TrEMBL record:
Residues annotated as domain DNA mismatch repair protein S5: 210-328
Gene Ontology molecular function terms on file: ATP binding; ATP hydrolysis activity; ATP-dependent DNA damage sensor activity; mismatched DNA binding
Family: Belongs to the DNA mismatch repair MutL/HexB family.
Record-given protein name: DNA mismatch repair protein MutL
This protein's UniProt keywords: DNA damage, DNA repair
Amino acid sequence: MIRILPDVLVNQIAAGEVVERPAAVVKELVENSLDAGARSIEIEVEQGGSALIRIRDDGRGISRDELPLALTRHATSKIAELDDLERVATLGFRGEALPSILSVSRLKLVSRSAEAAHAWEIGGAGDVEGAARPAAHPQGTSIEVRDLFFNTPARRKFLKSEATEFRQIQQAVSRLALSRFDVGWALRHNKRRVYEFVPAAGEEGRLARLREICGEEFLAQSVAMDESRLGMRLHGWVGLPSFARTQADLQYLYVNGRLVRDRLMGFALRRAFADVMHSTHYPAYVLYLEIDPAAVDVNVHPQKTEVRFRDATRVHDLLFAAVHQLLRRLRPEPEHHHQV
Ligand code: ADP
Ligand code: MG
């Protein structure tokens, strides 16, 4: 018998792709905060995220009548037509994260938009289907996710230790914090302060945050770069060959502010290091590629960490050439024998 699945089940299935672990929940919620124009984002986590994930932002907020919509599948304020998809400037656009998270947790959403006299809340003790209740909250949004996967025991069992899950969360927050130096961040785990970043104005603030996230050693053994060519800009920091890693654990690569894991880009960077680094080692970098949004497709995968370039060869060549030349310039000059 063929049946149409109920919404909750559809959302739970989608949750398998969008939010496979607590760190993915944090990433999705924080991306929403950034899309809402937040300048300050506080993240509170308990027990590696399986007990509680709470994100509080000072963004645009959600109006009372749109609260239920925010939790509805395929409901988004970010795109309206196919054309928009061709040049998405927001981190989200699928309208899948909140309904997916809602379907596998106990969720509470509190928000206050600029025009509202006070905040409104849904979920929590009450039902998300129920009416919104008045609440106290400054302009912005707080989302509380409790007991993640409580109703999907197979998924819950798949969670690793508290320490491992938190490490993933911290990694996710690190990636996001390095994508927006102008935003202030706080991360707490079991009430312990892990990160506290003020919005970084200027180079000094950026370096302080980079030091906190990537470590003193990376800072000491890396060089800044900023190259524009072929209508693209590549900037950031590249670890010196002497900072070779045995794991690919310090590789941050952003395309238009979105962290990506792109095979081709990773390959280009590895190749740039090939003459100066042993093939069993991995280069370290924090790099930002700015490119015409129309030249890149982000709608490839639900987690949106894969991208497709209209002209992949050009991107590959820029990355390879810029980093290769940088490394060459840094190498001690070979001895030349000049004729007098
Ligand atoms: P998407 O981000 O793909 O649009 P989501 O399910 O993540 O889908 O969010 C649905 C909608 O809820 C968003 O389009 C946005 O309008 C609203 N929303 C979610 N989180 C926030 C937030 N922190 N601040 C303001 N609006 C939000
Ligand atoms: Mg989203």
